[in-house]
Design goal:
The chain is mainly alpha-helical. About 65% of the residues lie in helices and about 0% in strands. Helix 1 (about 15-40) packs across helix 2 and helix 6 crosses helix 7. It is elongated, with a radius of gyration of 18 Å.
Length: about 200
């Protein structure tokens, strides 16, 4: 995935740098649901993570960069799906993983903050685009054994109902809701077949 312009990649192979990043992100995940994005200042984060503000700015030159990493480097919930040949199974498991990730308070708050700021903050807008691109590419990687690759519209039609239920309806995303979403999504795929692809049921 292309790195956002505002995000500075940490020095690879430096265990001390990686430990610092991991500690800061852990503290940020603990603080964010309580303080909200505005209250998560670099002064507070530096104090709680026992680092300098200069260290924070070296890793995350702005708040959008920090929220970006909070979302994409979230805790491993142990349920990310494996690649597979059956499109229904891969899509279902991917949506469940998405639901479980967003159920984490810090990730949920970070996603809402980046989305809310995107209209007036170019860094947040860029972070939001990059997050979508990353998740889209990851799903297509999982789908590779099936011979199916989905485009931007098909990707949106898959995850859109889940985010709408969570953020607009303020409802629960049950396994039954995910099953219904995938069933409807598969009919959309089947209505526009492309040569050389196999549709899993």
């Amino acid at each position: 995935m292309q790195q956002p312009l505002h995000r500075r990649k940490p020095t690879p192979g430096n265990p001390r740098v990686q430990r610092t990043r991991s500690r800061v992100l852990t503290v940020a995940r603990e603080l964010l649901p309580r303080t909200g994005p505005v209250g998560l200042t670099y002064a507070l984060l530096a104090e709680r993570a026992d680092v300098t503000r200069q260290t924070l700015y070296r890793h995350w030159p702005n708040r959008a960069a920090l929220l970006f990493d909070l979302i994409l480097e979230g805790p491993d919930l142990g349920n990310y799906p494996e690649p597979g040949s059956d499109v229904r199974t891969v899509a279902t498991n991917w949506l469940k993983s998405l639901r479980d990730g967003i159920s984490q308070p810090a990730i949920r708050t970070a996603v809402l903050a980046v989305t809310a700021q995107a209209d007036h903050d170019p860094d947040s807008a860029q972070a939001l685009v990059r997050i979508g691109q990353d998740r889209h590419a990851s799903l297509n990687t999982l789908l590779e054994p099936s011979g199916v690759q989905i485009d931007d519209t098909e990707f949106t039609l898959l995850y859109g109902p889940v985010l709408a239920r969570l953020f607009l309806d303020r409802g629960q995303v049950t396994d039954e809701f995910i099953d219904a979403t995938v069933t409807q999504w598969l009919t959309t795929l089947d209505s526009s077949p492309r040569p050389g692809t196999r549709r899993g049921r």
